[in-house]
Amino acid sequence: MGLCRYLPTPSDRMGILWSLLAIGDSVIVEYGPAGTTHFSMSLFGELGVDQQNRLFTTHMSEDDVVMGDVSRLEKALVEVDHGYHPRVIFVVASSVSAVIGTDLQGVCAYMQEKVNARLIAFEQGGFRGDYSVGIQAAYRLLAQDVAEANVPRKAGTYNILGASAGFFRMESDVREIERLMQEAFGMELNACLCLDTSVEKIQQMGCAEINLVLREEAVPAARILTQKCGTPFLLGAPYGYAGTLAWLEKIGQQIGRVVSPALRAALKKRAMEVMQYRIYGMMLKVNKPQVALFGDAPMVTGMSSFMDELGFPVVAKISRHSLRLYEAAAPSVRYLPEEKDRIAAMQALHHTLVLADDISKRLLAKDNTFLRVSMPLVDGAQIATHLPFMGPRGADFILEAVEVYLETLR
Length: 410
Hints:
Elements: H1 12-20, E1 23-24, E2 26-31, H2 34-47, E3 55-57, H3 62-67, H4 71-84, E4 88-93, H5 95-99, H6 104-111, E5 118-122, H7 131-145, E6 157-161, H8 170-185, E7 188-193, E8 197-198, H9 199-203, E9 210-213, H10 219-229, E10 233-235, H11 241-255, H12 261-273, H13 276-283, E11 291-295, H14 297-310, E12 314-319, E13 334-335, H15 339-347, E14 353-356, H16 358-363, E15 369-372, H17 391-409
Parallel strand pairs: 1-8, 2-3, 2-4, 4-5, 6-7, 6-9, 9-10, 11-12, 11-14, 12-13, 14-15
Helix pairs in contact: 1-7, 7-10, 11-12
């Protein structure tokens, strides 16, 4: 990684931690120095993740590092197990323990008989890639080691895979998906990987009729659940009006259900109404509307499709993370590993609607219009859980920013 002027992309370790912290009845024990965990906790506070009695560190002395002594970890596991009685203890490597090659899986194997909680080890320490690698590892291991096989099917239920606290407005998006699935099919959410869920719900993931996969990092977990439980999955997310209806109809085809006629009619009506933006854009004589997107690749792709509904060309599609895990990434979506290239891309924009993060806002010329759609947060905080970007409510919210932007072009 080159020099970083602002904030570096979070590592795989951070992706693991913010995913696991959303699972109730579990505890994370990080084997590493207290300083690294303290830094993590400050970030999780900004993400709105509840970490009270959920995240612990063993600390490490120089002797532990040099001699490979794991007695601190052994004592910590026993103490946490007896003091908090979690169903699962996730043992996560820090950068220090990963560098010295501590065998966390081996420690968990011989310590399992000394504790009641299930021990599951994550040996990534921040060196295998960015946060997309970490969340893929978290989803995969949960599907493989926590989800149970031979769970009786429960009609009218589904799981969400690919939702984690590190994605801006993710809780709002999950609530919108819940609303849409209830209105379209009368279905209820079982487990969500990984946002506001529990060990028990993950164990029972096999009960669902379908797994809704919001991003490609969760595809390996979905495939494991298909093999283990026979559950089909659909990759994609509902952005825009026409996009939401198409997404719901694909779900209906998979599970043999029909989208509610009332919801279908409402989405078709809204899709027709936004056709006016195509005409409006052609009427402008000087500065034609254009959009730039920066954030998580699935959000960039989904919002780009909504901009296509509006007839607005997207001149920049930049992913916040590496695309090496994406089997079918759109060629137009780019990842810029060097921060200077991203800075240059943002500084070059003029008279553009920019949907990005707070750092991008600081780089933009004043003739642009900005809407925050991505982490990291620098200015302000994420509070609301009812303001999605997905679904028709998300499209309504984005259209308000579009209206402000169009005023600047007149």
